[in-house]
Structure formats: C-alpha cells, structure tokens
C-alpha cells in the first residue's frame, strides 16, 4: 500500500534533501524542547513512516540552546496523572524510541546544551551520538521525585554500565566533554558544530546499501534481547540475506578488480 505522507507537525520539523538525508529538529525551544504528549506522538509518526518514505539516514537535532529537557514537567504537573495514565505515557515514549532503535534507518543525534532526563533517553535511542562542547548529560529524575520512564534503565545502562547508571540516577551527576566520551555516553566530541559532524556521518552511512543499514540498525539491538545461541542463528540468517543481495555485487566486483578503496589507518 502507498505510504501516507507525514502530517504537518507542531513541535518537530523535518527537512529532506534529495539523497534521503533527513534532518529532524525538536522545535519547542521556549520550553527547552521538553517532551510533551504532542511531541511524542509526532516522533512516533515520524519514525514509523521514515523507513518507508525513503529516509536513508536521519540527523536528530534541536532548536535553541538545549537539546532536550526531558519530560514536560509542567504538563505532568498540570495533568496530575494517575499511575495508569503515566504508564500509558511511558508506553508511548517506548513506542517512539523503539521505532527509532529498531527501525533500520541510521539515526545520528547531534547534541548540544542540556541532554537530560527524557532528553538523554531520546538521545540514547539514536544509533550514534555526537556532542559539542556545550553538551551535558544527567538524569535528574531522582531529585525531582521521579524515575526514568522512557527506556533509560535499558539504553543508558547499555551505554555507561550499571554502576555509573545508578550513580547518575542517585546523585544527579552531570557528565560533559571528554568525560562523557570516556564513559560511553557519546561517540564523537566536536570542538565545532555537532550538527555538521552528524550530517557528515549521516552522509557516510547513507552511502551504504539500505539493506546493510537496515540490518545494522535493527539486528544488533534485537540480538541483545536474545540468547547467544539465538543471536548467532539470527546473525547467520540476516547475513545470508544481506551478504547475497544483488546490489552488493558491484561492490564485490570492484574489490575483486582492485578498484575499491582499501581500509587504511587514519592519517
Ligand atoms: C520546561 C522543562 C521541562 C524547561 N518541562 N518545561 N528534566 C529536568 O529536570 C530538566 C528541567 N529543566 C532544566 O533543568 C532547565 O530548564 C534547563 C537546564 C533544561 C534549561 O535551563 P534554562 O535556564 O535555559 O531554562 P529555564 O528558565 O529553566 O526554562 C525555560 C522555560 O522552559 C521555562 O518555561 P517558561 O514558560 O517559564 O518560560 C521552563 O518551565 C521550561 N522548561 N524544562 C517543562 N522539563 C518518561 S519519564 C522521563 C523523566 C524525565 O525526563 S524528568 C525531567 C528531567
């Protein structure tokens, strides 16, 4: 069936170039891009549709001085939600972030300013994180009388390990700069613009065959949820499909004819 186009969003903007590079911008800077229910619904639609609307790589960025302040605390305060209400809120966050992590299209988060609480949960659902010198990371939920509900217990723990995760949650510890790199919160730390670097990485990733990227940006995550035995089986099946794709033939021919680039150390 024909894929429906994107709705017009109020809190998120989407720019697409002719090569399938999408730039998705959280666009509620006056509220530091806090994640309200509307934004989460927009992210669900966007990341559900993007793989079938031709996105080859997506850069996730944000307007204003901060990437994202996490859960919209004012909305949460005003709605005075019940446990069931908030459970359903969290289920929608999981829907959005799972669409990102398992959707098969590379997502590169370009980070600056506060990347805190649910903002860090959002960033951790991307496949690559790039920080600039202003970016800082924390989980202030404990201090606010809250708990993470958007997947941090899984994804941030995967990035930094259990001991650092519990320390961040208990003490509100802030990571930034080289330390954020060293603990694994980000993969790139830029002296210049994180957006420029994320765009470069997106273009590089988009030069891979889409089926390879689909496997990279879904299979690794799925395999983490499996036993080693099932993961090895799945890897064999996926490699069977990906590594025999007709589109790979030309790249293999180039290697055989010695015209393909060789892997060399960084200069
Ligand atoms: C907000 C939010 C928000 C700002 N919800 N409205 N997250 C936090 O605990 C982070 C809370 N926010 C902050 O610590 C700071 O706002 C920032 C470091 C992000 C930015 O500081 P600053 O000085 O630039 O801005 P500000 O003056 O604090 O806020 C500017 C406006 O943004 C103000 O609104 P205004 O209408 O009074 O102008 C703030 O109310 C608004 N704002 N952050 C709503 N978070 C699924 S569970 C997830 C659990 C969590 O994510 S807990 C949240 C953790």
UniProtKB/TrEMBL annotation:
CDD domains: crotonase-like (cd06558). The keyword Cell membrane does not apply. Gene3D superfamilies: 2-enoyl-CoA Hydratase, Chain A, domain 1, Lyase 2-enoyl-coa Hydratase, Chain A, domain 2. Pfam families: ECH_1. It comes from the Bacteria. Keywords: Lyase. Belongs to the enoyl-CoA hydratase/isomerase family. PANTHER family: ENOYL-COA HYDRATASE, MITOCHONDRIAL, ENOYL-COA HYDRATASE-RELATED. This is Crotonase/enoyl-CoA hydratase family protein. It comes from Aliiroseovarius salicola.
